[in-house]
Amino acid sequence: MEVVTVTVRRGVVRSVVALGLVLAGVAGQAGAAQAGVANAGAGAVAAGRATAGTVTAPEADLAYHGRVSLSDGRLAVWVVPENQGPAALANTTLRLRLSADLADGQELAEGCARAGQREVMCETGALPAHGRGRHIGLRLRLQERPPEVVVRVDTWWNGGATDRNHTNDEYAVLALDTGDAYSF
User: Fold this and answer.
1) What is the pLDDT of residue 63?
2) Cα–Cα separations (whole angstroms), residue 157 to 94, 99, 110, 170
3) How far apart are CA 87 and CA 83, in angstroms?
4) Which of 34, 38, 35 is nearest to 57 (CA)?
5) Which of 3, 49, 58, 181 keeps 20 to 30 A from 74, CA to CA?
């Protein structure tokens, strides 16, 4: 997994590093022991019973609403993260994937970091149950001036929460180079 961070911001880097370690796997007995505990816990939860020492993940329903517009090789993205509950979340990481390359030297909003040639990650901050997080606004410069860009919005990290409804937190938005705002 390649992660390129151009601008370092608060908790996003912690999220990127933590998930990178989980995805890459932890070698040795500690990793095997953790996997065994996780599998045993998942089996108990799936069977509808909790055993002593089993930690169950909180359940939350993340949702994203916002707008995307493209004009003269500049992409504007505005996102409001929301947690429809039932549990509050301390922090999550939103991922934006673009169909066009980003220009070098981006100035990103606080809590956001570039994670590749076409990806940006942004922390949402605390999301109360049945509440909204901070508004995330980005003005991204593209390397070229494409006639259209597809922006994919999804959750990259949710703090280990269970989210059974991904119809409201995974979007693909087509923005034409007209300056018009496309809502999701």
Assistant:
1) 96
2) 7, 21, 18, 13
3) 8
4) 38
5) 3
Nearest one of 144, 171, 150, 174 to 72, comparing CA atoms: 144
Residue 44 pLDDT: 32
pLDDT of amino acid 55: 66
- How large is the C-alpha radius of gyration of the chain? 18
Distances (CA, A) of 172 to 4, 25, 31, 152: 23, 29, 35, 4
3-state secondary structure of 23: helix
Give me the pLDDT at residue 53, please.
Answer: 59
pLDDT of residue 39: 35
Rounded CA separation 54/44 (Å): 8
Pair of tokens at residue 4: 């390129």
> Residue 13, SS3?
helix
What are the sequence ranges of the domains in the chain? 62-183
Fold of 62-183: Immunoglobulin-like (2.60.40)
pTM for the full model?
Answer: 0.70
Q: Which of 33, 40, 137, 8 is nearest to 80 (CA)?
A: 137
Q: Collect the ranges in the chain with pLDDT lower than 50.
A: 1-51
Coil, helix or strand at residue 115: coil
Task: Report the amino acid identity of residue 23.
Answer: L
Long-range CB contacts for residues 29-34, cutoff 8 Å, separation at least 24: none
State how far Cα 95 lies from the chain centre.
Answer: 4
